[in-house]
Write a structure and sequence with these properties.
Blueprint (H helix, E strand, L loop, with lengths): L1 H20 L16 E3 L1 E2 L13 H4 L3 E2 L3 E4 L10 E7 L3 E9 L22 E7 L7 E6 L6 E5 L15 H4 L5 E2 L7 E7 L2 E9 L10 E12 L4 E4 L16 E7 L5 E15 L7 E15 L2 E9 L25 H4 L8 E2 L3 E2 L18 E11 L2 E10 L8 E13 L2 E12 L2 E17 L3 E11 L8 E10 L4 E9 L9 E2 L5 E9 L10 E4 L2 E9 L4 E9 L3 E3 L4 E13 L3 E4 L2 E3 L2 E13 L6 E12 L2 E14 L3 E14 L2 E17 L2 E10 L4 E11 L5 E12 L5 E14 L2 E4 L1
Parallel strand pairs: 1-15, 2-5
Antiparallel strand pairs: 3-5, 4-14, 5-6, 6-12, 7-8, 7-13, 8-9, 9-10, 11-12, 13-14, 13-15, 16-17, 16-46, 16-47, 17-18, 18-21, 19-20, 20-29, 21-22, 22-23, 23-24, 24-25, 25-26, 26-27, 27-28, 28-30, 30-32, 31-34, 32-33, 33-35, 34-35, 35-38, 36-37, 38-39, 39-40, 40-41, 41-42, 42-43, 43-44, 44-45, ...
């Protein structure tokens, strides 16, 4: 049954490829490659008042950076609205002033007033600084007309190279390793608006950044402006359409920047009080208090030591639940602040498939997801002698049913040239009460950039676990080709049956080989008025056990995916799955699938509207075969906004499954509400019902922030045994936490 389907799909794909190849290309600006852009920052003695007005004389006298060039929608043509940027430095901070003129100021689109909001859903302004001029890594800072702080650490030019998992939408997959958006730096931004447009003013203290030695330096620099109503993006240093501002090998240069040889020194104490009750084991609420401290010290301007004692993450946003119809674990990203800074230094392996090191294994029980006490630890990251280095030591305390552990990680990387690097990593877990209980992983990885179009990645790892015998090696190789018109990749990954990265992440048990081929054509035409791009693509994935048994395969065929000029998208597709069960699989309570090979075809549709509209949606709809029966379902997210101060979203994941062994429904409902008094004062709620767990959970967070994610937090959590989103049976756990944390000190 499968062979005729594949033959028909192959013939269809061949015809589509012929048609696609004949399509006319969208217009591009003619002429030679643009000359490298060079900018300078004016040196001042009196800093400007940070109010977003940009009306002081020091701004008018600074050199202007202009002549921005579009990346979207018309690559290589000038930006449609006048854009000017000026840079200042007073030896303590870098100041960025942006004049973002607009002939239709009433059509400027503001964002929600919260840190790290998705910039592309509004008008925005962003700058990236490559402080080591390695053309690979940088610090990204951005804002919107609402005056929010948006910051991220960028590694490998934002290229994660991870594996997209079945059931994920693009938002859940993210960059898969290349951009650390959860990093929160100490900096300040102000914005203003008038009849001529909007304006942004940044103050980025040098102690927030990491850079090499020398009083005068050259840094990589690029600047980007987004005009949402036209879905337009323009950059100071022109970047090819298939990339973005993180493509640092195409960035310009900020020359002769005077930087201080300062060493950061901060301490961040916290105190908290909480009242909580777990109803199964406690007859009354228990009230406790705690305190702890984080410290940061600049060993050199490019090498930083972080210390933490009695580490607490009570203020961290809870995970958004997901439906799981597979026999494998779901990947959830790290959100805890201490582990986020310079997290890219420790990244090794294939994100979401085989991570050699995964910080959520520290202080979070892998089986239950419950937090474990972290006694403390230290982290050293930065540059030494041309090497990027990282060292991490953390210690967790004992908890009921869980032993205390000591975690040690060492990492070294060498940037060889633009877009190329090699590195090594070592990871160890040792039980604090028994040195014979340990796990070790060592690995090496590398990336080779060939021009702007080709990228090759490879890594190899070996684990050591007492009592575990067999092949303890894992390895991977990937080759990617990306241009304006094509996006292809091929990957091979092997995991020995004894490979065991206990402080890492694996998407399925060890003992398999994974092969992946992805082919995509990117088509544009000046004749299309509403459609920006057509993306016909096909992908093939196979997981074969070391015993030769086909564990899984997935063929994804999408010949009709289109992106609209509004920012929406639409794409019907066909998915052909194979699942090989070597042992019974209890897919739902009392419903067991017997061993065997199962092949099934599932048509689906991805559909999303303009994400900047006051009301928008993103949906994934599927209906088709499933193991011994059928499955129909939808994952729908509806988002509503009222200006910049209020947002809400409803997420529904509903799967109706009918099998020969029995029928069941998977239902997940989530509601998020947020009100923003200012960019630093807000209240958020996340309520979720999961019928698989038969539980309703609620999380409410009020935050009054100072800087770098510190401030006052009030967090309320509630868990209920439930039959639906509104019908609860009995309480499971409740807690109220009040926490205050403040950063003291600065660079000096």
């Amino acid at each position: 049954m499968l062979i005729p389907r594949l033959r028909s799909l192959t013939l269809l794909l061949a015809g589509v490829v012929q048609t696609v190849a004949a399509q006319p290309m969208a217009p591009r600006a003619a002429g030679p490659a643009p000359a490298p852009r060079v900018g300078r920052a004016a040196t001042i003695t009196t800093p400007p008042v940070l109010d977003g007005r940009l009306d002081e004389a020091v701004w008018r006298e600074a050199p202007v950076l202009t002549d921005f060039v579009q990346r979207e929608p018309y690559e290589g043509t000038p930006v449609t609205e006048r854009t000017e940027v000026r840079l200042l430095t007073d030896g303590t901070a870098l100041y960025v002033g942006a004049w973002l003129y607009d002939r239709e100021p009433d059509l400027i689109v503001p964002s929600e007033t919260i840190r790290d909001v998705t910039l592309t859903n509004s008008d925005y302004f962003a700058i990236i600084l490559d402080t080591y001029l390695d053309r690979q890594n940088g610090f990204l800072f951005g804002t919107t007309p609402s005056g929010i702080e948006h910051d991220a650490q960028v590694i490998r030019e934002g290229e994660g190279g991870g594996v997209f998992q079945a059931g994920q939408n693009r938002a859940q997959a993210g960059s898969m390793g290349g951009i650390n958006l959860n990093w929160d730096a100490s900096w300040t931004v102000r914005t203003s608006r008038d009849s001529l447009g909007w304006y942004a003013e940044f103050r980025i203290p040098f102690f927030t950044l990491r850079y090499g030695g020398g009083e005068t330096q050259d840094w990589g620099l690029n600047i980007m402006r987004g005009i949402r109503r036209r879905n337009e993006e323009a950059l100071w240093s022109q970047v090819s359409r298939q990339f973005s501002i993180t493509r640092l090998s195409q960035a310009g240069t900020l020359t002769a920047l005077a930087v201080p040889a300062q060493r950061i020194g901060t301490v961040t104490p916290y105190s908290l009080g909480s009242s909580s009750r777990t109803y199964a084991t406690q007859s009354a609420f228990a009230t406790t208090g705690a305190w702890g401290i984080d410290a940061k010290y600049g060993v050199t301007p490019s090498l930083t030591l972080d210390l933490t004692y009695n580490t607490d993450f009570a203020q961290v946003e809870v995970d958004e639940q997901r439906t799981n119809l597979t026999r494998f674990p779901i990947f959830f990203p790290e959100k805890r602040p201490f582990f986020l800074e310079n997290a890219g230094v420790f990244a090794a392996g294939t994100p979401q498939a085989v991570d050699l090191f995964f910080t959520r294994r520290i202080g979070i029980d892998a089986a239950t997801g419950q937090p474990q006490p972290i006694l403390g630890g230290a982290r050293l990251t930065g540059r030494v002698g041309g090497l990027t280095v990282g060292a991490l030591q953390m210690v967790t305390d004992e908890a009921p049913g869980v032993v205390g552990n000591s975690y040690t990680v060492a990492r070294a990387l060498k940037e060889l040239s633009a877009r190329s690097r090699v590195g090594v990593i070592a990871v160890q877990r040792t039980a604090t009460g028994d040195a014979r209980d340990f796990n070790r992983v060592i690995g090496a990885d590398g990336r080779l950039g060939i021009g702007q179009d080709w990228t090759a990645d490879a890594w190899v790892g070996h684990s050591e676990t007492p009592g575990r015998r067999g092949d303890a090696m894992a390895w991977s190789g990937r080759l990617a080709y990306q241009t304006r018109d094509w996006n292809h990749s091929v990957r091979v990954l092997g995991v020995g049956e004894a490979f065991n990265p206990e402080v890492g992440f694996m998407s399925r048990p060890a003992g398999y080989r994974f092969d992946e081929l992805m082919l995509m054509r990117l088509v544009r035409s000046p004749r299309w008025k509403e459609v920006r791009q057509w993306n016909p693509h096909v992908s093939l994935r196979r997981w074969v056990g070391t015993d030769g048994y086909l564990q899984s395969s997935w063929m994804h065929l999408d010949l009709t995916e289109v992106e609209f000029n509004s920012g929406g998208r639409f794409g019907p597709d066909v998915n052909i799955y194979t699942e090989g069960l070597q042992r019974p699989f209890e897919i739902a309570r009392g419903i067991v699938l017997p061993p065997g090979q199962y092949r099934f075809t599932v048509p689906g549709i991805d559909w999303g509207s303009d994400p900047s509209a006051p009301l928008s949606f993103l949906a994934r709809l599927e209906a088709g075969e499933f193991y011994t029966g059928t499955r129909s379902g939808a994952n729908v997210s509806v988002t509503g906004r009222v200006g910049a101060v209020f947002s809400s979203s409803l997420v529904v994941d509903y799967q109706d499954v009918h099998l020969e062994q029995g029928d069941f429904i998977r239902q997940l409902v989530g509601v998020k509400l947020a009100y923003f008094f200012t960019p630093r004062v807000f209240v958020q709620t996340l309520t979720q019902y999961n019928n698989q767990a038969e539980a309703f959970t609620a999380n409410l967070r009020f935050a009054w922030l100072n800087t770098a994610g510190t401030g006052l937090f009030i967090v309320l959590n509630d868990g209920e045994a439930a039959d639906s989103f509104t019908r609860w049976r009995e309480p499971l756990a409740r807690s109220l936490t009040i926490k205050y944390t403040r950063q003291i000190g600065s660079g000096g």
